[in-house]
Protein 1
Amino acid sequence: MNELMQSLKNYIDDVQKLLPTTKTLTFAESERRAGEFLNAMAYLTDAKHTLNQDKIKLMSVQTAVYAELLANGNLKTVTENKVQAEAAPSYMTAREDYENVENDISYLKTYYDIFNNAHIFYRNMAKGENA
């Protein structure tokens, strides 16, 4: 796991601690939590942007490695060269790197959705107590 994702997972773990409601919360605490989740959503959005930029670069690398392997293929048919290229360690590594970034983006999107729901929940709690 890269340094960015480890940092994000640590951040998510910290924010997740605000999810449980084992007691009645004050208006001020509900507002604070709503704000914390809104801040977390902004933080995750920025991280997703960074990872999407990485994804673009990794797709280019994957494509370049594959094209080079195909160009250097010396088997009889295109299909055989494709199979050989896809089995090459350099292509497998490039593909895994790309798929890992896709997985990380999906992970952040899931937590973004959770934090969005938590923000709405706590915001509504604060409004309900203030009404």
Protein 2
Amino acid sequence: MSRSLYRYASCQPSHGASASKIDRYHGLFLTLACCCLLACNSTYTPKRKGYFKIDFPPHEYQTFNQPGYPYTFDYPVYASVARDSSFFDTVPENPYWININFPRFGATIYISYKDIGPNSFDKLRDDAFKMTYKHTYKASSIQPTVIQTTNGVGGIFFSVGGNAATAQQFYLTDTTRHFLRGALYFDTTPNEDSLGIVNNFLQKDLTHLINTFKWKKSGPLPPASSR
């Protein structure tokens, strides 16, 4: 055998080595195939949708009792009260319109006040219903509940379900002199699922506000000449 032929022959793998390498390839292929089959036949469990956890403070209250205002009530220590100078692009007709702000939750209770006398009680009541039922196209339900507190304050509380802009509204009145309306709004796109836990938390604060609410003056309006 020539030297060049010998060199060529010595470089060729033996039959046994080729078979061993082929067996390894077959084994690797079968392993990959099994993994693919198991992956395709496994049950996929989608991750449940969740929202950020909110740590709520304890319900503690302070009293709003500013001089000159015709009403007083308790509100949370984690809220602040500011006079409202513009209510949804409407100029308040008196200085007793306020906002109760909850910066921690991006929420505000808008409070408007009207004096019965210049305004008809029936019209104020009907307007309160109309403003609440404007949310019908987004609301899944609207449940009015009669309010009658131990302080002699009456009114209606509206629970609004669904993705409405506000889930809680109310009005309070003595039917002769005072009429106050409140509505809770959030500074975000309405979503019943994500806001539900916050709405439930603030509902307790609204209930406490209403149950501690008092009119500073009661009785019929004074004669027009003395006003």
Protein 3
Amino acid sequence: MLFQIGSGFLAVIILYILLFVFFLIFITLFLMIGLSFVDADKRGFGQSFLTAFLCTLVIWALIVIVRTFISPSFIWLIIAILIGLIICWVIIAKRHDIGFGSAIFVTIIAVIAAVIIIIILILVIGFLLGVVLWIF
């Protein structure tokens, strides 16, 4: 019985790690797209991956700290995310040798690119699902 509980818990941990890595790669790709719009140094996959990793850790740590020690309310969650986003912009600006405004621009371009690609994926998957359901 104990082995079954442990293996289920281990499976959940592995699933969370895989999701974290998947979303980190997802964020890295869109950060690379955003960095291609400005004259940024060090915009390769490895440098962008490290920047995305640092930003993710900062925002995650702020959310955990605020929810644990201050308040689990929604307004404090938004404040933690905004502070984390400002710190993330500083990290992007320093790591890629661009200005603070360019770091904000990179983030906006990355979000726009992500939204466009997600909408395209939803449309394609919906179309394919419709075709499959129509055939069968």
Protein 4
Amino acid sequence: MENLILIIHVIVSIAVIGLVLVQHGKGADAGAAFGGGNSGSVFGVQGSANFLTRATSISVTLFFCTSIALAFIASSKHEASTTTSIAIENSELNNNTQDKNESNSVSQDIPN
């Protein structure tokens, strides 16, 4: 499950980068109107910009969702490993205590 979310996360991040780089900024249209192109470009074609904006919004939303999912998975793994390590340490302490008790009882059984 983690690998699937990670693959989706990488693909969506590349899509966000590509979509942001393809879009024109609002300042680029104003600069073109004052000498770099035809004067009608200030109000440019909104059809492609609307599609790119919507696609970017969807991609960014997926990016944040996968980021949160990966963070949740990582934190649950950390909790599980911490719980396991505490249980192992406790069992080792119990074994050491039992070994000491057994060594004391054996030494008491030997006559002087």
